[in-house]
Amino acid sequence: MKRSSGLKKVALIAWRDFRFTALTPAFLLGVVTVPVLGLIGLLLYPILLSQATSKLEGTLLIVEGNDTIAPLVESILDEGGGARLPKELQQALDEMPAGMMQLAGDGKGMLQIPTEIEIRTSGDYDRLETFKEELRNGAYIAIAVIDDELIEIPPPPSENVRARSIEDPEDDVEEQEDAALKLLIPSDSLPQHIAMLEQVLLESIIEVRAIKAGYDYDEIRRMIETPPVKVLRMTAEGVESDRLRLRMIVPVLLMMLLWTVALTSGNYVLTTTIEEKSNKVMEVLLSAVSPSQLMAGKIFGQAAVAALMLVMFGGIIIAGLIALALSNILSVQLILLSLAYFVIAYFTIATVMAAIGSAVSELRDAQALMTPVIVVLMMPLILYIPINNNPTSTLAVVTSMIPPLTPFVMPLRLAAAPEPLPAWEIILSLLIGVGSVVVLLWITSRIFRVGVLMQGKPPSPMELLRWLRYR
Fold first, then answer.
1. How confident is the model at residue 73 (pLDDT cuts 50, 70, 90)?
2. Three state DSSP letters for the chain
């Protein structure tokens, strides 16, 4: 009966902490509104991507000595050259899982720029200042100035050129500037419009050079086109596609999610403990419950807050991880193990924060004690690149077995490893994590019961060690 009463007190303290932390307008506004807006944005994003960008229409003036570039520019625009997806983006879309591709669409219509451009040419370079004034008055969307040297095939580098650039580098720079494509634009031109015009003009110049050299440009373009790469990983079950980019990004996102939520929720334990201690609320609570019950109630109450934050802030990421699991990017087992490691991470941080909060009376006094804790907790972020690149290395194995790094490094290794990690490593890491939490709970309970009612100067590390020996 007495044990039941103690659990009831712990539950009441936990509910009190949860209610005063999570059920406040400020918390709900920050923790609920932001993810909801993010979810709405995620749902609207494909629609926004599918919408065409602002139309580029008007007159493009091409100033060139001979009428060679303008017909090619017009031909490329007629073929939809301005609406082509960049090769890197198209490759990323091709590698997306089927479910995500359905959400984002097939990529057609994304970043496309509808054009209605009239090409006008002139060979009168002397009227360039007049053309510029007309551009300022809105007569043109852009002016491309193409010197005759620009469409000539560039000579190979020679010792004479190098010597001339060494003797008089300013003249060499001036020559390079004279041979450059000059694109004059109005002050309100959009970046995507400028990039599209650059791409079309440069492709036209390259095609003219190829034609002047007697080559079939279409054949050259087909030869230099990058072929698709399909990486197939040979596993015991057979052959499966390996999405390298996703395998590099997802582990980092997973570790950052666990690290951020665990540290943020643990910080709530610290701040609420210090606040209640400084305004004497702690003394009132200790008149009805024991220090151990109060500590347990606060930790479990903030655990509920952490769970709410994980659901709200990580909801979109968790949904994405589940979708990736269905696409064989991540396994359901990994997601479940990550949740287990998150519990270990939270209790690891929360117990340390509870001990610090009970030992000091003001938040600024906690900074000195928190500094080494934050430095240790930053280690997974510092080491994530070598661990992500080689999740089975000695460094990765050793750091995954050292608390408090274990609950952050292990999910990173599990997600990044091309093959399942040995079962004994997973079991041992879970035992080490749970064992470290038990030890930290014992240490925190000793510090909490002594420091929770103490005021004034914060204790030194030696005094904290002495508190552990008190019975």
1. confident
2. CHHHHHHHHHHHHHHHHHHHHHCCHHHHHHHHHHHHHHHHHHHHHHHHHHCCCCCEEEEEEEEECCCCHHHHHHHHHHCCHHHCCCHHHHHHHHHCCHHHHHHHCCCCCCCCCCEEEEEEEECCHHHHHHHHHHHHCCCCCEEEEECHHHHCCCCCCCHHHHHHHHHCHHHHHHHHHHCCCEEECCCCCCHHHHHHHHHHHHHHHHHHHHHHCCCCHHHHHHHHCCCCCCCEEEECCEEEECCHHHHHHHHHHHHHHHHHHHHHHHHHHHHHHHHHHHCCHHHHHHCCCCHHHHHHHHHHHHHHHHHHHHHHHCHHHHHHHHHHHHCCCCCHHHHHHHHHHHHHHHHHHHHHHHHHHHHCCCHHHHHHHHHHHHHHHHHHHHHHHHHHHCCCCHHHHHHCCCCCCHHHHHHHHHHHCCCCCCHHHHHHHHHHHHHHHHHHHHHHHHHHHHHCCCCCCCCCHHHHHHHHHCC
**Backbone angles phi and psi of 403, in degrees to 5:** -75, 145
274-293 pLDDT, tens digit per residue, is 877 777 777 777 777 777 78
Question: Residues of the chain with pLDDT > 70: what percent?
Answer: 73
Residue spans per domain, the chain:
2-35+244-469, 56-80+115-227
Average pLDDT estimate for 347-370: 81
User: How many angstroms separate the CA atoms of 359 and 262, rounded?
Assistant: 21
Is CATH 3.40.1000 the right assignment for the domain spanning 56-80+115-227?
no
